[in-house]
Amino acid sequence: MSVTREEVRHIALLSRLDLSEAEIDRFTAQISQILDYAAKLNELDTANVEPTFHAVPLENVFREDVPGQPLPLADALGNSAATRGSFFEVPKVADGS
Amino acid sequence: MTEFEPVIGLEVHTELNSATKVFCDDPAIFGAEPNTLISPISLGLPGTLPVLNCVALEKSLLTAIALNCEIPSRTSFDRKHYYYPDLPKNYQISQQYEPLGRNGWVDLQLKDGSQKRVRINNIHLEEDAGKLVHPDLPSARGLSWVDLNRAGMALLEIVTEPDITNLEELEVFMQTLRSILRYLDVSDCKMQEGSLRFELNLSMRPVGATALGTKAEVKNVGSIKAVLRAARYEMKRHIELLESGEKVIQETRLWDDDRGETRSMRSKEVAKDYRYFPDPDLPSVVITPAWLGSIREHLPELQDAKQSRFVQQYGIPEYDAGVLATDRALADYFEECCRKHSAPKTFSNWIMVEVLRELQAREIEIDESLLTASRLVDLVRLVEEGVISNNIAKDILKEVMETGKEPARIVEEKGLRQVSDEGALLALVREAIAKNPGPAQDVREGKEKALGFLMGHVMRASQGKANPAVCRQLLEKELSSGG
User: Fold this and answer.
1) Domain positions in chain A
2) Residues from chain B contacting residue A60 (CB–CB below 8 Å)
3) CATH code 1.10.10.410 for B422-480
4) Hey, are the CB atoms on A93 and B38 less than 8 Å from each other?
5) Residue pLDDT, tens place only, B198-246
6) Measured between CB atoms, which of A15, A16, A86 is closest to B33?
7) Taking a C-beta distance cutoff of 8 angstroms, is the pair B280, B50 a contact?
């Protein structure tokens, strides 16, 4: 196993996922398989190869600093599960800021 | 007992004053109705693509130049992942691997005349998050409200090395950096609106030691004063822990300005594991020397150069020039006054004393004040022409700041015109002498001080409108002629 149950638990926490013990077992095995497969790439010598950040050879794509038309409020809030006035409403996450 | 000194580094976030957000064309404006400045891109809806705002990038590069940074030939953007309702995409676009500036510095001028260099680790461009409101309402218990207007605004982060070792350096650093950012016209730096924010990294170590102690990170500090209070609080907390043999825990703490203390954030909320990776949506930026050269040409005259020029060009003292040059808007204001009416020293006095005091009392900047340069010029002219006294002018200045009325109109409306007519003033002068025989006698015996007492009486009786020079002459004349 190239990933531990503890790591899977940690990733789940970061992603705000509540996994059962059975799910942790299953995902530990699956993620390990994926990582092992990807590890095949390590067999290649890439010492002298620049990392590829982008598949398309584009650079310096810019936008002029000219304001456009924002969404009407009703559309902006339209997909939300809960709203209050012109706010989205969500469960409180933490105190402070 | 061991003496401790603080070691402080700062993470500075400043919202750039571009017209639109950094990766989409939503207007970047403060104070609009919640969620009226958002688009599919700032909402992070599937299928949208961010495109970099050229002005935001150039303002960032200009700042990197002014802070003496090394600027790479290529810069790129990365995704920083965390889940929080103020961040609709669940990642923030930032720069981790190829920031647009590294290894810069800011030189501080300290009170004792010495200089201190604070190194800049890096400068990078990112997008701001939205704002959460925690309403104190029974019907909203356990709920937060989200305003995404700020989500996606261009945010420049400046990270210092831990080079600050006392509170004076901390204060001067914040003021100097703010001044530079305002000089460059890259941000309005309004701390109360959140367009300039400081996060403190602070640890303590025995004086003379070189190893760093365990640091605490302090967030949620809303003003330069509050940063200083938070630093003072943390220094005390660390020293108490260290002296009692306890350990300082490395953690993030929140500043509570009302209580004047910091408190720990639970570790679950701050588990820092951002899983950065290059953002495939944003192509890299190649920075050519020619481009950088043309940005460098936009570098304005900075504080030191302006101070020297003011001394040369306007013949005002070094000290005055220093005060006027601390803020670009203030310096521009002074120059505008001088262009309209050539009385540099008069304007410098008014600005340094009355204007700055009134601005500070209102916690605003000169470019937000109703006392425009032409109104100050009119006010100074009214004094020079003898229409009003200097003291009345000070009252009018306050009223202009409040109401934006023209000074001449206030003079007419309130009947504040200075009285210089000898006939009218003579009655007041005689009354003052008659009511104060003791001080009058003192003046006759050559005690200069008593004259001031009588002058005060006359000025009060005239409600400040008497022309002081004329009154003084009349008083002296009356008393020497045995009146």
Assistant:
1) 5-43
2) 283, 285-286
3) yes
4) no
5) 999 999 999 888 888 889 999 888 889 999 999 999 999 999 999 888 8
6) A86
7) no
Q: Which one of B133, B269, B286 has the shortest CB-CB distance to A59?
A: B286
Architecture of the domain whose range is A5-43: Orthogonal Bundle (1.10)
Residues of A with Cβ-Cβ distance to B254 under 8 angstroms: 95-97
Give the number of A-B residue pairs with CB atoms closer than 8 Å: 142
d(CA B210, CA A80): 53
What residues have CB less than 8 Å from B173, skipping those under 6 apart? B10, B106, B108, B118, B160, B164
Measured between CB atoms, which of B25, B254, B278 is closest to A96?
B254
Q: Which residue has the tokens 């704002």?
A: B131
Per residue in A31-52, pLDDT (tens digit) is 999 999 999 988 999 888 887 7
Q: A4: distance to nearest CA of chain B, Å?
A: 17
Kindly give the parts of chain B with pLDDT less than 50.
Answer: 269, 483
- Whether residue A94 is predicted with pLDDT greater than 70 in this model: the reply is no
State yes or no: ipTM above 0.85.
Answer: yes
Listed residue (B155, B127, B130) closest to B279, CA to CA: B127
CA torsion sign for B336, B339, B345, B350 is negative
Q: Does the beta-carbon distance from B144 to A10 stay under 8 Å?
A: no
